[in-house]
Amino acid sequence: MKIRRCAVFYVESREDLTIDWAKLFAGQNTLAAQLSWVALVPHLDREVGLNTEQLLVLGTISQTLWTDREEAEQRHGGAVVGALLELGLLIGDDDASTPMRERDEKLRSQQWRPLSALIHTFSRWRDVRTETGMQTPSFQELVDRHGPPPPPTIHPAAVGASVALPPAGKGLLDDALLNRYTGRNFDTSASLSQAVLARLLQRTFGAQSVRNVGPDGDVLKKTSPSAGGLHPTEAYVLVQRVDGIAPGLYHYHQVEHVLRPLRMLEKDEAAALALQLVADQHWFAEAPIQVILVARVLRNFWKYRNHPKAYKAITLDAGHLSQTFYLLATEAGLPAFVTAAVNDVDIEQTLGLDHLSESVMAVIGCGPASGRQDTIELRPGDTA
Question: Is there a single domain that holds both residue 208 and residue 105?
């Protein structure tokens, strides 16, 4: 049997401080530090506790070249090698190791930059709800807790007099730019028309043209920029209230301009799912549609292989798309929203996604405003 180390893992030291009661009563220093090592392992999607011996052994086994297990056991002992195989930090080439080996090889094949794979894997939420720790403190509560925020503007040291600029001239985008705002008070009795939904989806995510740049080299021209012109972000639409479209989960096909149904839902099921996906942010869950932005990482990493900027480019793509969506919603007279505070793992399970291949980036949505401000909004023209 051959073994090698898994492709990506990072080790973090942890320290737990406890009170040494014996020293306390003896009048000495009462704090005691308990040190431990934890491996963060993207292909396992979990943390793994390690002892010092296991850590040292992992540092001697290649992640690329296969080694005879018998040879490794002679050098390090059968118990520690067996334990690391069981943990999934060492990978075997035998049938029993197939599930773990396939996960490790999938991570390798996606061309992740290791640090990006780590950030992506361990920044995902699962089952974050109001009762499990989701907090939404007000601005004043944050000030009371942490003090005032850093100032809204900065004044770097200048080498000369400031240059006064002329007033900004009016332009075609002014109405959309100056009237856009994040909606948090949606009318739960109102729906979207199919015509509005169609324009939102086609102009945000749809291919405005398909261009051939070589054999097997079609690229899409869209209204937002994308690193390398690759446009890896897919749109999954949770419909709650759209005229003539049944509640459910759909995938928007960016070339065919159709919604492909993935899962049909009753009205109350769609509402409950929306609340779960946005981690109990009811002010967003009440919008008639939520659009889940999911990046197919290999579409981007095909070009930017193991690249230190590849994952950042994907996050920029999501930002471009959300702003385009905002402006189109504003054009239609609708407030919009975007949030990254979502239950990524729950979304993955709902859509049948694998986090090594498809990265949940954000949820966006829009809908008619209720006219109330039960939740604070910064609307155009507000002076207070």
Answer: no
